[in-house]
Amino acid sequence: MLPRPLKPQWFHILLALAARDLHGYGIQRAVLDQTGGGIRLWPAMLYRSLGTLEEAGLIRQVPTPAGEPEDERRQYYAITPAGRERLREETATLARWVDAAQELEG
Amino acid sequence: MERDLRVYRALLLLLPGAYRREHGEELERLFRDALGDWRRERGEPGAAFWLAVAWDTLRAAAAEWWRALGEVARPDPARTVGEQMSSLVGDVRFALRQVVRQPAHGFMVVLLMAVGIAGNAAVFRVFDGLFLRPLPFEESERLVDLDETAPEWNLEFVGIAYPDFVAWRRSNRTFEGMAVLSTDGANFYDGTSPEHVSLVEASHDLDDVLGIEPELGRFFTPEEDTPDGPQVVLLTRGFWERRFAGDPSVVGRTVSLNGRTREIIGVLPRTADFVADVDLWLPLREDPDAANGWYLAGIGRLRDGVTPQQARADLLAIHRGMIEERDVNEITSPVVNSMRERHLGDARMSSAFLFGAVAIVLLIACANIAGLMFARALAREHEIAVRLAMGAPRGRIVRQLLTESALLALIGALAGAALGIRGSGFLVGRLAEQLPAWVRFDLDARFLAFTLAVTAGCTVLFGLGPALHAARRTSPTLTGSARATVSARRRRALSTLVAGEVALAVALLVVGGLSVLDAHRVAHIEPGFATQGVSTYRVGLPAARYPDSAARLAFVDAYLERLRAIPGVEGATVSNNLPLSGHWGWFFTVEDAPERAEGESNPVVLMRSVTPGYFGAMDVHILQGRAFDDFDGREDSAQVAIVNETFVRTHMADGRDPIGRRIHGGGGNPWLTVVGVARDVKHYGLDEPMRPGVYQPIRQVPVSVFYVALRTAPGAVSPIPSARAVTAELDPEMPLFSERTMQAILDESLWTRRATSWLIAAFSGVALLLAVAGLYGVISYSVAQRTREIGVRMALGARAAQVRGQVVRQGMAVVGAGVVVGLAAALAMAGLVSRILSQVEATEPLVYVGVCLLLAAVAVGANWFPARRAAALDPMTVLRGE
């Protein structure tokens, strides 16, 4: 079982894959965009994160989608239903925290 | 791109092999993408990029290794024993698993190994620097130290006389080159604050002999090395950086030294500090026809294949050939030594003893580890027997057990080496201050090789025995009397091991005790002069400003008057030499003394030129006659001298009253009337014999560089700042230098001896601790083995006290055997040990008895706890348990 809440990089990987299937580099770019350049996933730890999420059943490896260049034999990843569910839960948790914080400030 | 990728591949080697093989390609691809992004966004990747990548890889590697280790440690029933051990990697993994399973065992082995290696690493670092590391010069093994010796003057080294050197250099056939130099000091003044600088005065060929070239400019020319040559100076690298901020345009500029202007002709490289750690180099400018005295140090470069002995014979022939013009060459003769032998030869013995001490500590640590490994092998007897029964080859099991030992030894050695490097840091820091600048203690390949070799040796030492024993084909189902026999044999083997440890510890404790006692006694030798409340420094009067005796004496008179007026100063004196601070040798004859026989030695006499206040300020007692007064040495009164006790013995052995006799210092010197006999002081070191000595009033021998000693009440504030102000009032260009208290000078003279003895003592303490730990382990093991026997005896009526007594007796028998062997070994080494002692006999009974008592007390303690455990056994529980 992965800890709650998820580590930020895991959350962002799930978020990126929720939009569409991606390969490692694609995930790295997507996360960079999502976070406005805040989280740069470097190769080794990105790879470890993918392994961890896969072991936890939140993502899975998928064949290269049609229309994408196949020459580099990049491994594509997709989010699983369990992954989507976990992403929803995490987002809800985060939203509650944000609400609480905004109430305090407002 | 390719280069970056190669670097990344190297980084990936940090990851476990299996992980890398599976995911390496993908990681490289990701890396290439990241690199491309970085280039587009921020340009060429720099430190920030690589730091991030390295950190990323390191984190992943640590996590993956942690995971891999966890998998190894988890027993995997799917794999057979044979598969697990199919390769060395397998062995290492298996060993890791064993270690992780028994962390306490692994920790103990690593700890013992670390303790053992730390001392060895530390001492080897010192030894390497002193005796193994080549000097920082091309073909440095051909460099030799040159000097002259004069046994008849009771001097091992007198220094080289310039005329001798000139003849040697001209006529020798064994040297590629030779050079001489002397060290000196001068006042450097650039208009701001005066500074005392230290100088080398070198003959013009020293650069060729050493093979050095100035970093800037050039070395001295032969013309500059003549009495009337141009006034030039070379800067050392350190002085150039400190005083001129490394400005390359200094060449050609002039500086003022002792009031004379000299042209800077270059900057020397750092390797030139080899000669002496000084500020400036000047040409020697000596005149072969006018020079007298022996004061030069010599360095020669031998021709290829020439030995120092051959070179000495060559020089001796030249030296003897000069006797007609220089009859003194009958007394002096040249000596040729290797640089190390000459400057570090004295350290050889004490470092050998330190090495012996750490070797013993390591041996005892190994014996303890062997004991632990043995116990561990016994615990795994069943597992190994099963493996053997399943057909595992014996060699394989031995190899696997050895791998486990090697793994633990390596971890321990790493920790120990780190500890040793740290521990030796303070030692080499202090040593470096006292040794020639060419002695360096940087870590090098030799250090690495030594540590690895010792580690490998230890692995074999403590690993092989237990491994072979464990792999012996024994049936795991031994029962009854057979098992008892086996365990009795094992107990005997372990007892022998521990007795050996005790013997080594005892021998080392004796040496440690002797050397500490010796250092203590040396430190408490009465020096014969005041050490408390005496502050000293030096000043020099440059000839340009103080050209004659009258000027120098006028300065001294005015100076002393002002120094005495400093509040708190109870006594002030000026002298050419203070105790423990150098030697100035003269030769004296005594009026009406019987002629010395042909070849009888005429020992050199220590000449000291002092002011009348010297004896009071330095607390040197006048035993007979009187001290100097203000009238002594004035031209209108008779010239006088005070001699020391040794002088009376060596020069006035006829027994007549020394007071009123006349002595003569040779040459054009006047006859001096002895007015007093002063007590001997330990001028050359507390444990060094005193030479004959003569004091003369400074009026008779007005030296130009002198020591000042100021006596204050003990605990008073230092008078040095006031003295500096007083000096500046008289002469603003005159710097104070070598400011130290007499106590500091004394402490420094004792430091090496103290450090050596306390280190040996500390190592012997560690040895004792380890030996006692081994003893405790073996006695505990033996009590555990004999639980049944003890239970039976108690059931049959043995009282607790009897059981305790028996266990303690058994332990003490082991200790006794060890002590006897250890004492015998120490006695056998007494001849060797006496060479590092000066005030203690190597057979000093006090130390031997003390070591025995100490060991007995500690050993009883180590035996008592297992004995109490044995006596507390409940016989019924024990018997029921069977």
The stretches of 5 or more residues of chain A where confidence is low (pLDDT under 50) are: none
In the residues of chain B, how many domains can be counted?
Answer: 5
The radius of gyration computed from the alpha-carbon positions of chain B, rounded to a whole number of angstroms, is 36 Å
User: Domains counted in the coordinates of chain A: how many?
Assistant: 1
Large-scale geometry of chain B: globular
The level of helicity of chain A is: 55-70%
User: What is the number of E strands of chain B?
Assistant: 22
Number of helices of chain B: 25
Return the CATH class of chain A.
Mainly Alpha
Mean pLDDT, all residues of chain A: 87
Largest sheet of chain B: 10 strands, mixed
How confident overall, as mean pLDDT of chain B?
85
Total DSSP helices of chain A: 4
Q: Determine the N-to-C terminus distance of chain A.
A: 36 Å
In short:
The complex is a heterodimer of chains A (106) and B (882). Helix content of chain A is 58%, strand content 9%.
Molecular structure report:
The complex is a heterodimer of chains A (106) and B (882). Chain A is mainly α. Chain A has one domain (8-105): Arc Repressor Mutant, subunit A (Orthogonal Bundle), CATH 1.10.10.10. Chain A is built from four helices and three strands. Chain A has helices spanning 8-19, 24-34, 43-55, 81-105, and strands at residues 22-23, 59-62, 76-79. In chain A, strands 1-3-2 form a three-stranded antiparallel beta sheet. In chain A, helix 1 (8-19) crosses helix 2 (24-34) and helix 1 packs across helix 4 (81-105). The longest helix of chain A is centred in the last third of the chain and has 25 residues, at 81-105. The mean pLDDT of chain A is 87. With 882 residues, chain B is an alpha+beta fold. Chain B folds into five domains: 2-70, no CATH class; 75-138 and 346-477, no CATH class; 159-331, no CATH class; 481-526 and 742-882, no CATH class; 542-733, no CATH class. Chain B is 53% helix and 14% strand. In chain B, the strands form three sheets. In chain B, strands 1, 2, 3, 4, 5, 6, 7, 8, 9 and 10 form a ten-stranded mixed beta sheet that branches. In chain B, strand 6 and strand 7 (260-267) form a beta hairpin. In chain B, helix 22 (800-828) packs antiparallel against helix 24 (845-871). Chain B is globular, with a radius of gyration of 36 Å. The N and C termini of chain B lie far apart (73 Å). Mean pLDDT of chain B is 85; it is low at 72-78 and 475-480. Chain A binds chain B through residues 24-25, 28-29, 40, 42-48, 72, 74-75, and chain B through 15, 23, 26-27, 29-31, 33-34, 37, 52-53, 55-57, 59-61, 63-64.
